[in-house]
Amino acid sequence: METKSKIIIIIAALMVLLTFVFPLWYIDLEAPQYPEGIGLEIWINQIVGQNPHDLANINGLNHYIGMKEIVPESIPELKIMPYLMIFMILFGLMAGILGKRSLVYTWMLLFVIMAAVGMYDFYMWEYDYGHDLNPQAAIKIPGMAYQPPLIGSKMLLNFNAISMPHIATYILAFVVMLAAAALIIDTKLKKKRNESAE
Q1: Is the Cβ–Cβ distance between 130 and 58 less than 8 Å?
Q2: Taking a C-beta distance cutoff of 8 angstroms, is the pair 153, 161 a contact?
Q3: CA atoms within 13 A on the CB side of 8
Q4: CB hemisphere CA count around 41 (13 angstroms)
């Protein structure tokens, strides 16, 4: 690969570090009794409330309708994800330094696979929390499930649940776009050099 493309790949790999600085996803819960808003932020290694007591308040609400308590420390994905991101950073740096197009294509493919598996896993996590309800719950509505949407908004009783990507997800999408741009630039530079040599 051309030097310019290698540099772009290295920069893209280093940008993955930002996933440790910004959240991946958020879930907002809008309701009249919470005019200031209440919600969760999902990071690669933690789930926290958007405000200081949001997680505790959401767990309190969930208790009344029979949903399990959200305990970030018990979610294995939050322990695995940081290591996956470190691996992707190192893989990207190796691809950029060695300048092998096959490694860059593999790196991009790994991001796509991780995104697909991550979305499926998140959907199943939401499904489990929304459907596996305690039959002894204080509030029981026959046939009612409380699964938040994967992306978008959904009414759950008097709460409008909004689930959307956050900054780190957009950063990862941009990283893949940068890698694709590096490959295109590399192709154009090689073609231009070959034409000049003729």
Answers
A1: no
A2: yes
A3: 20
A4: 18
- Alpha-carbon distance 25 to 23, whole Å? 6
Using an 8 Å Cβ cutoff, are 163 and 27 in contact?
A: yes
Domain boundaries, the chain: 3-188
What is the crossing angle of helices 77-98 and 101-131, to 10°? 170
pLDDT digits (tens, 9 = 90+) for 173-190: 999 999 999 999 999 988
pLDDT at position 41 over 90: yes
pLDDT cut 90: percent of the chain above it: 71
Cα 160 to Cα 62: distance, rounded to the nearest angstrom: 15
Q: Which two tokens stand for residue 14?
A: 């280093």
Bin 29: left if φ > 0, else alpha if -120 < ψ < 50, else beta: beta
Distances (CA, A) of 128 to 20, 114, 133: 27, 21, 9
pLDDT, mean of residues 101-120: 96
Do 186 and 107 form a contact (C-beta atoms < 8 A)? no
Sign for the pseudo-dihedral over CA of 112, 113, 118, 119: positive
Tallying the residues shown for the chain, one arrives at: 198
Confidence (pTM): 0.90
Both structure tokens of 34: 């919470």
What end-to-end distance do the CA atoms of the chain give, in Å?
Answer: 20
